TrEMBL record:
Residues 197-208 have a biased composition (Gly residues). It is found in: Membrane. It comes from Streptantibioticus silvisoli. Pfam families: Rhomboid. The keyword Metal-binding does not apply. The lineage of its organism: Bacteria, Bacillati, Actinomycetota, Actinomycetes, Kitasatosporales. This is Rhomboid family intramembrane serine protease. It is an enzyme of class 3 (hydrolase).
Amino acid sequence: MDAEEMIAEARKAFFVMFGFLAVVWVIQIVNWADHYALSQEYGVIGHRPGRLADIFTSPFLHWSWAHIESNSGPLFIFGFLAAYRGVTRFLGLSALVVVTSGLAVWFFQGGDVDTVGASGLIFGYFGYVVVRGLFDRHLIDTLIGVVMAASFAYLLTVAIPGTPGVSWLGHLGGLVGGVAGGWIFRDRTRNAARPYGGSGSAGSGGPGASFDDPSPGRHLPARPGDGDTRADLHKELGDLGLL
C-alpha cells in the first residue's frame, strides 16, 4: 500500500466510523424514547438459546446516556486506527470481535444479566491495534501499538474477573478476538515476497550462479530499481513499514 492508497483508506475509515457512531446514537435516541425497550429485548442473556442471535445487536445498544458517551470516544479512536489500513479487513475483524465478545457473555455470564454496549468492540479494536504492527511488520503500526498500549493499559483493569458493574466477560472476549484478528487478518503479502535471486538458467552461468559474481564476460541481470533512485527509496520505506 503506497501513501496515496493509505490516505484513501484512512478517509474511508473516518467515514465508516463516523457513520457507525451516527447509527449507534440514532438507535440510542429511539431506545431512550422507548424506555430502553430495545436493550431489554435485544441484549445478550447467558445460556438462553433464544438470545444467542442478539450477540449481533447488543453492540449497537446502551443502557444510558452516560453509557454511550463513555464508549463513543474510544470506539471512534480505536476503530479508526484499526480500519485505516483497510476497511474490508476491518469489517472482517469487527465480525470476529462481535462473535468472540458475545459468545464469551452468552457462555459464561451467570444469572439473568442483560448485556449490551459497544465496549466489547472497543477492547477488540484495542487488542488488534496493539498487536497488528508485530504481525504485519509495519514500523508505524508497531509504534502506534506501543503508544496505545502504554496510554490505555488501564483499560485492562476492566477485563479481569470480578470487576463490578461492567461486563468484564464481554471485554475479555473482545480483547481475545482482537488479538486473534491481528494474526488472522495479518498482511501476508509482505511475507510472501522472495528476495531477488534464484537458480541460474541458460546464459546465466548455470545452476547456483551468483548474481553478484563478477566473473569476466558475465552480464549481470539488472536488479529491480537499478538506476531509479525513487523506486529504491519507496522500497526502503516499504521495508520499514512506512508505506
